[in-house]
Amino acid sequence: MAKRKVEIFSAGCPLCDYVAAKVKDLSCSSCEITINNLDKGQGVTEARAYGVTSVPAVVVDGKLIGCRCGAISEDDLKAAGIGQPI
Predict the structure, then answer these.
(1) Taking the model in full, what pTM does it have?
(2) Which of 16, 34, 75, 81 could form a disulfide with 56 if both were Cys (CB 3.0 to 4.6 A apart)?
């Protein structure tokens, strides 16, 4: 079964946790979610490759859809396919 790769880049702060929870709430069985805590050294290389400049950041299937809580809306997540079966 094909999966949509959803990567969340976080610093473990409340805003990052909020975005991670929003992504999880919207996700469906087609979404494979990975949370990278940059403060713990997780996903640093990937974050640089995607052009992440601030957190929280969300990448869907290799495309950066937003950095910072206010810049990542529910509509952006849905437009990226989160919550829609493949």
Answers:
(1) 0.92
(2) 16
